[in-house]
Each structure stands twice: as structure tokens, then as C-alpha cells.
Amino acid sequence: MTVFPGLCKGCGYCIVKCPRQCITWSEALGIYGTPTVTVEGDKCILCQSCALVCPDCAIEVTYIPRPKRKKKYFD
To answer: What range does the record give for the signal peptide (predicted)?
Structure first.
């Protein structure tokens, strides 16, 4: 998940819409001098609710699959 602070105007829609409550206010200021958001990546379930509700397209959710694990067979 990527947040673009230069595009975030600090509306807070993503914070309200997140089902896991993993988006919070950041210390960084956005383009309008308002606080931007930050994401706790380990809580995020990649539902994309935040990206869909963001009026400024300041959030991008990209799924990157983990490498396939090799199965270990025991004798």
C-alpha cells in the first residue's frame, strides 16, 4: 500500500472507511498544510476501501504475492 502525501489533502475519508482501522493521522503535512495519513501495513488486509473512497487518488493498493514456499517432504 502506498500513500502519496503530495496528493493527500487530509479529508480523513480513508480513516473512516478502513474496516481494520489501520490508517491513522501522520506527523507529515500534505500539500495544503493539513496532516496526511499513514498505514500500519501488518494490519492491512488489502481490501482497497481506502483507495476507492479517496477523492484525490492519494492511496494506491497493490498486491504483491509472496514467493511460493517449497513443500518439504519427510522420509
So the answer is: none
What domains are defined for the chain? 2-60 (3.30.70.20)
Q: Are residues 14 and 59 in contact, defined by beta-carbon separation less than 8 angstroms?
A: yes
pTM of the full structure: 0.76
Mean pLDDT, the chain, integer: 86
Using an 8 Å Cβ cutoff, are 51 and 4 in contact?
no
| DSSP for residue 17 | H
Quick one: pLDDT at residue 32?
83
